[in-house]
Design goal:
The protein has a nine-stranded parallel beta sheet with strand order 13-12-11-10-9-8-7-14-15. The protein is 34% helix and 20% strand. The chain has eleven helices and 15 strands. It folds into two domains: 62 residues, Phospho-2-dehydro-3-deoxyheptonate aldolase, domain 1 (Alpha-Beta Plaits, 2-Layer Sandwich), CATH 3.30.70; 247 residues, TIM Barrel. The protein starts with a strand and ends in a 7-residue tail after the last helix. By secondary structure, the chain is an alpha/beta fold. The relative contact order is 0.12. Bound molecules: phosphoenolpyruvate and manganese (II) ion. The site of phosphoenolpyruvate (PEP) has 8 residues, from loops.
Length: 336
Amino acid sequence: MLVIMDNQATEEQCHGVEDAIRALGFEPVSVPGAGRTAVCVTGNNDRVSAPMLERLPGVKQVIHVTQPYKLVSREVRGSSTKVTVGDAVFGGPEPVLVGGPCSVETEARTLAIAHKVKAAGAKVFRAGAYKPRTNPYSFQGLGEEGLHTLALVREETGLPVVTEVIDHDSADLVAEHADILQVGTRNMQNFSLLKRVGRAGKPVLLKRGMSATVEEWLQAAEYLLAEGNEDVILCERGVRTYNRHSRNTLDLNVVPLIRRLSHLPIVVDPSHGVGQRERVRPMARAALACGAQGLLIEVHTDPDTAYSDGSQTITVEEFEAIARDREILGRLEPIG
Ligand code: PEP
Ligand code: MN
């Protein structure tokens, strides 16, 4: 439920509504917006029937939110959220390029890649220090050492860094070093981790679970907003299907859909979406054309020797080509 306040409503009247919501046993969350003040009722499972709220002084209208997610929904917040990190504005006028290797590697290699992606136009550097690997014998990431390398990348290049939080054990340490916390596909429904990450005080990049519906994904994002974190970026990275021709099936359908359902920015990761470097650029173009507000791409100065995901990692030259594509496709007239 969303309680829309009158334009003339006083602060006292807004507090009165919040108190009334608390008295019903729910949590009020105020939703600022251009031209209107609203208070969202959260904590309820079912439809709240509270006609008394409509009669409180200063209340203009009470709207029942039809979706299971609220704070992430456009029904609750009409204006698009912008997440600003360094020079990157996710949800701003230009799609944001995020690039870097799958994993943090040696300092020298990681820094060399970071300088190249920055020169190509990346506004954020990506690399995993803690890697969630399917096989326990695969490279698991450099851990804390990798976080120090990321800190060095930020220091030397000025680029903010995004890196994954894979569990509670490493959450505080990662939050200390990263500018954006990535929640990966395997943890999208790790609800206790979502709550922890939501409270960490850093922007979050929430990847779509590999078999998650849009409703499940948005409810996962709701966990983050419910903890008071509004700086959330959604990332489509492909879903599991019967296809054998690609690692995942990049579901670009969700880009315009998410932009209609939610005010949160959405970016696309074509690297994990296709799993083969030859197809990263075509799908990056497709993502930009359908309205992606950023691209997350695995790139390396020597992809064949990458510590992980080499087969889907593109060269720096290819990344530069995608940056040129973005110049053209990022200027397309927005739809809807
Ligand atoms: C990654 O970005 O390197 C990663 C592990 O992504 P995903 O969670 O989408 O597999
Ligand atoms: Mn990867």
